[in-house]
Amino acid sequence: MMKTFDLTEKELAVAVILTQSALDSCGGHRPSDFENDEHTWVHVNDLMDEGYSDKEAAGFFSSLSDKGFIVDNELGSTNRQPHLADWCIATPAWRWMDTIWDTKPVQSLRKGESSDLSM
Predict the structure, then answer these.
(1) Is the pTM of this model over 0.90?
(2) Please, what is the Cα angle at 30 between 58 and 76, to 5 degrees?
(3) Cβ–Cβ under 8 Å, residues 71 and 87
(4) Buried b (16+ CB within 10 A) or exposed e, 61-92
(5) How many folded domains does the chain comprise?
(6) Is residue 47 part of a domain?
(7) Is 106 exposed, middle or buried (0-12, 13-18, 19+ CB in 10 A)?
């Protein structure tokens, strides 16, 4: 049985941004592309580049981590920001995202629109 994630509308918007960022990094088009290249690393800068403050980004990373959507990659600091660890989208999370990637709410979020999350 596939794991699902109970995300708020704002968390889902952030999850879409993070998933798209990881896809852009590996040349993928949809989350199922991670099956061939599980390049799912994400960073708080991915959200800050979209206009979130560092505190907002940290808050979303905390809530998405608590829900198991992202996991610490345990590799420690990176050269992007040596004091911050990178994270990965959990395998069950990107597999779940693939099942909703083409739904109207997620398509709206991918286009930067607000969304009605009734799926």
Answers:
(1) no
(2) 35
(3) yes
(4) bebbeebebbeeeeeeeeeeeeebbbbbbbee
(5) 1
(6) yes
(7) buried
Residue 1 domain flag: no
Tell me the helices (H) and strands (E) count for the chain, helix number first.
5, 3
3-state helix, strand, coil in the chain (%, to 5): 50, 15, 40
Q: Which amino acid is present at 87?
A: W
Distance CA 43, CA 27 (A): 17
Edge to edge, the sheet with strand 70-77 lists 41-42, 85-89, 70-77
- pLDDT tens, 11-33? 999 999 999 999 998 899 999 99
How far is CA 31 from each of CA 22, 82, 83, 98, rounded to the nearest angstrom?
9, 28, 29, 5
What is the chain's Cα-based Rg? 13
Instruction: Give the CATH number of the domain where residue 21 resides.
Output: 1.10.10
DSSP state of 2: -
Looking at residue 15, its amino acid is A
- Joined together, the tokens standing for residue 101 give 């990637």
Stated length of the chain: 119
